[in-house]
What does this fold into?
Amino acid sequence: MAEPRPYQRPPQVFISFHGDELRDNFIRYLVWGLRDERVNVFIDRAEANRRDIRNISTKIEESNIAVIIFSKRYTESEMCLNEHQKMHEHVKQSNLKVIPVFYDVSISDVKNLEGEFGNHFEEMKMKYANDPLKILNWENSLSSIVERTGLTSEEHGTGLGLVMAIVRAVKSELTDSLERRKIMKGQVFVLASAAVFIFSLFVARLLCTDVKVYKAVKCLLGFLVLVGVLHQLYCLRKHPNR
It folds into this structure.
């Protein structure tokens, strides 16, 4: 009987990049920087070699944030373009936040498919000329993501400055996401408590014919609901990651 696999925490951040171009330098330092801040990161090591898009898709679905590193050779990779399309789909469904990063390539070149970035995309279009829908999906996803505010190597450089800018942006997005979840949890609990309280009053009114008993039950129920709400708010404040 095979031993069960150890539990692996789903990735908070998925990094999309052209491996041959960036893996051994910039990406290595970026992953170190994020993990140093206790951010769980996924990068496509073995998956990229096997072209295992199914596992890549799962990791994208599990992630909260995608960091897309646009570089001159990004569109040279079919895997990168497929990842990008998958991320675009989840962004449209509001299931994923994206941080575009323009590494040694201009926003204009990416947006208009020009320069070396555009030349590689033209090569992909020629390669898949018999599949116009694939090309159209790639083009639509690229144009949509580029419209979002991103980080550029023109402003931060191609080294540590850009790494730290990405780490700050990721931490900011994760903090905002946790705050939104805390608020939603609190709202759901309060609404559920209110519904239970109202329903309990209705049932108590049917069962308690004595007015004094009914008032006592009403006060008791109100006290219990108040204690539950206060306890939940305390837990959310003390354990924000729950």
User: Anything to note?
Assistant: Confidence is low (pLDDT under 50) at residues 1-7, 46-51, 182-186.
